[in-house]
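Hi team,

Filling in the usual template for the complex we talked about on Friday. All components are listed, including any nucleic acid strands or ligand strings, so the model treats them as one assembly.

SUBMITTER: L.P.
PURPOSE: interface mapping
COMPONENTS: two
RESIDUES: 608
SEQUENCES:
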Amino acid sequence: MAWFRKEKKPRQPKGPRLEIPADVWEKCEACGHTDIRENFNKTHNVCPVCDYHRRIRAIDYINILLDDGSIEETESDLKSVDPLGFPDYPGRLKKALTNAGDSDAIITASGTMEKMPVNLGVMDFAFMGGSMGSVVGEKIARLGQRSLEKKFPLIIISASGGARMQEGVLSLMQMAKTSAVLSQLAERRIPYVSILTNPTTGGVSASYAMLGDAILAEPGAVIGFAGPRVIKQTLGQDLPEGFQTAEFLLDHGMVDSVVHRGQLKQTVGQLLRHMSGKPAATGWASS
Amino acid sequence: MGTSALEFEKPLVEVEKQIEELRSMAAEREINVDAEIAPLETKLGELRASIYKNLTPIQRVQVARSPRRPFTLDYIRLAFTDWIELHGDRAYRDDPAIVGGWARIDGETIMVIGQQRGRDTKENLHRNFGMPHPEGYRKALRLMKLAEKFHVPVVTCIDTPGAWAGLGAEERGQSEAIARNLLEMSQLTVPIIATVIGEGGSGGALALGVADRVLMLQNAVYSVITVEGCAAILWKDGKSPEMREKAASALKITAQDLLELRIIDEIIPEPPGGAHANQEVTAAAVGEALLRNLDELRRLKPDKLVRRRREKYLRMGQFEE
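RESULT (copied from the run log):
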């Protein structure tokens, strides 16, 4: 038995308590910094403490890059089918449609960026890991076609584990299909900017993602042909620190620049102005 | 056939063994056993034909990967003449997993490029099991551009488990090397014919596979991912025969499947018992198919050739709207 016992006294709140519902709190996956969602949203979901670029949805990137009020989604009615009768594919598709929306693994849009008309495709990792099947290939092909017709620059933001294996070789052929479109753009000297986000691997990195006239990458994004797990398995050894990150690719000459999400729009704008013979944006002419 | 026989070829090995025993006995005792051997030979032929007529997808994977199958250099030796190999990407090194050079078919110069596997361990280490590094793909592209410069058609042989997944390959831009080939092949102004001779493994195969005509040997396979990889990712089991079989069927990787999906243009028949049963006959069939397709493609003007090639790839894919 204790000699002394602390007298239990209910603590008196010093002032009126700020009520914040539990579900508005978010936590940085990298450093654990906790803040309300609104604050994360203000920085485009880049952690204010450690600068970790958190995963955001395709629609968020569209809102970051395109001018307010200019956005028009294109090719929104393309739907994946199950061409091979692949086990569980219809079920997985249904689940993805419910959880991630009905744009498949890429949203394509037309709009203006710093008042320049552009066509923008943004992959959505939430839809079956951003996997590229026939719909992704067709949407990119049609978006590229729009760029060809109007001579508007093309921008694609990638986030993908690679080809969608449930569509077999048809998925593989989307690599050739998208590359064929890009060769037409190149021939007509229409600028194409590729932006790599976390992760960009497999058939996506080995086709349109690495074919930009400029290739930008978000800080820390994992980018590679084979995923890190596959390489680790193949080699039976641990991978060096920072292997296959955006910064690693920059060091090895594979991307033009690693760009902070907050600077993405003005960087792409600057590049497109250079490549399409437009004058510098206000404030850039003299610096 | 001996030790490298595949599981489903075991009945063939049995009959071969019987014939062999009869022969050695005959030689020992100096007697004639032709009368005994003849029906066994017939039986062997029938058995081989019936086994190979009904191969399942996973069995075709095994056949496609067999070290006894003819490789790129075998086709070069058997179907072409005047071969001279060219080496290196002019930037980093020569990748032995891809071979390429000038050759002739029916007297006309072509540029031949293909992945090269090895027959034994030593050769496989040298060839990295036919899994190219970026410099291999860059060598291939250099040779394609060279062919274009001199208006010479390009013939590729596809035979790889996939592009190499390793540190150096990533550092030197495996993705970029493959992507570059896809883009450049879609605008090359000379005819391109690709033939899948063994295993067509994913992007590492496609990097030599964007072509005006894609041919495929009867027992070759072509897939977006290895059956093991597919089974491991989807069913967490890449090792068991059941799951590998399931993946092999589901992925639709046989020549017949891909012809129906209009991914490939033509199936080149193999002799009973597969390409390895008679390399000469197989190489002759490949040569005949190449020559016939080349004759057709040579008639097209460069801009029409490129336009048709692009249109073909732009049509690929199935979806709903």
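MY TAKE: Chain A touches chain B through 61 residues (CB under 8 Å). Chain A has a mean pLDDT of 93.

Thanks, L.
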